[in-house]
Amino acid sequence: MFSRGNANINSQFNVIEYNGSSFVRVLNCRYNADGGNDPWDVRDLMDDSMDVSCENYLKGDSFQKIHRELLEKLDAETPLYHVDMQIDTDYGKFRKDLEDYLDGDGLQIGGKKYDYFKLAEMWERESVPDELYFNHGSYFKTDGRTGIDFVKEQLNQKPTSNRIVLPTYNMEKVIQSLDDSIYLPSLEHIQFGRTQKKGELFVHMCFRALEASRFFKINICEIAYILEEIRKGKNAVDFDKVKIIISAFRVQVKEHFNCFLKAEIDKIDSSYLYAKVSHGKIRELCELLREKKDGMETITKVEGIRTVYKAMLASDAEAGENAPIYYGEEMLHMFEDLLEAYRKLDTIHRQSSVTSKEEKECEKKIERLLGDAIDELVKLDAKRKEKNV
Questions:
Q1: Taking 70 as the threshold, does the pLDDT of residue 308 lie above it?
Q2: CATH topology for 56-252?
């Protein structure tokens, strides 16, 4: 098979390891007769790094390792398509690794900081919390049972079933969502199952789209929350090892993403906003605007901004320049430009789900306009206080 004495001839062969049901390893062994002191070139064809079709497949025993590798990939190329990640580890190690990685971390928006584990619990509640536009747990509830109750029951009754699935929607919901009349979660489903090994649990989380910098931390904490819940109470499920598989059609990073948390300015009753504007509650208005500025949104809500604008118009028209605080044309123009920028951003969101240069520019404009409005309000407040001294 080899022609070691002939420098013009090279040879190669494969060494295949087969366990009776699948290929474990395939080594391509190439002998280069003119290769000098090291004529052998041996490559593992099952190695992820050798297979470009697996370039978006990440595997390890640590979420933080996989998450960092994913962010590195996204630094080089975004968005990524068809991404698969696998965490294979002991349950206790998975939990500790996650707690260590997220220790002190949180979703910072304005003056509020949200703990990722607490956010995950909010996303898994039976009903949608006031802080969120929608969540996942409300989709899983059926027949008076929570999704977690269903998973526990089925893992006890038929642990190898292929139907232990928590879905978030069907085709009817997809059609309804095309005109943005309903919210359609990016999470498609979470599936659970066991093999004949009683101590091991499989979890598969599947996404239409995944935001990697912030929302992924919430999603992995959702898995941690569900795993913790199914290990305790009635119908508790015992397991020591977990194999968590996360699949996403598209993955990208959205800086300062608010993860569908409602800005306070969009939650507050319009009458209260009118009162804050007319009575010159500038510090409170600035806090509301800072929170809106610090959380980039894919659900474009402008009710609060529009209410503040209308209240400023009414305040100026009613009392004129003799009012305790007169907002003036410059401030009103800022809010008009801001509402127009939000309208443009909403149009962009309706046309594409992939972050574009145009979207980033529009978001930067909104951030700048909100910042300018806050600065102008601070100046107005200072002038008013100086006048009253």
A1: yes
A2: Thymidylate Synthase; Chain A (3.30.572)
CA of 100: how far to CAs of 63, 66, 240, in Å? 11, 14, 19
Pairing status of strand 57-60 against strand 80-90: parallel
Cis bond upstream, residue 167 (ω within 30): no
Max CA pair span of the chain? 103
Kindly list the domain boundaries of the chain, sorted by start residue. 11-48, 56-252, 264-388
pLDDT for the residue 115: 97
Q: pLDDT value at position 50?
A: 45
Closest CA to 224 of 108, 388, 97: 97
**Pair of tokens at residue 140:** 């899983």
**How far, in Å, CA of 310 to CA of 187, rounded?**
38
pLDDT given for residue 49 in this prediction: 47
Range name among 127-136, 193-202, 365-374 with the lowest pLDDT average: 193-202
pTM: 0.81
For 14-67, the pLDDT digits (tens) are 898 877 666 778 888 887 766 666 778 888 877 644 444 457 999 999 999 999
Residue 211's nearest CA partner among 101, 102, 61, 67 is: 67
Does pLDDT of 181 surpass 80?
no
SS (H, E, C) 318-368: HHHHHCCCCCHHHHHHHHHHHHHHHHHHHHHHHHCCCCCHHHHHHHHHHHH
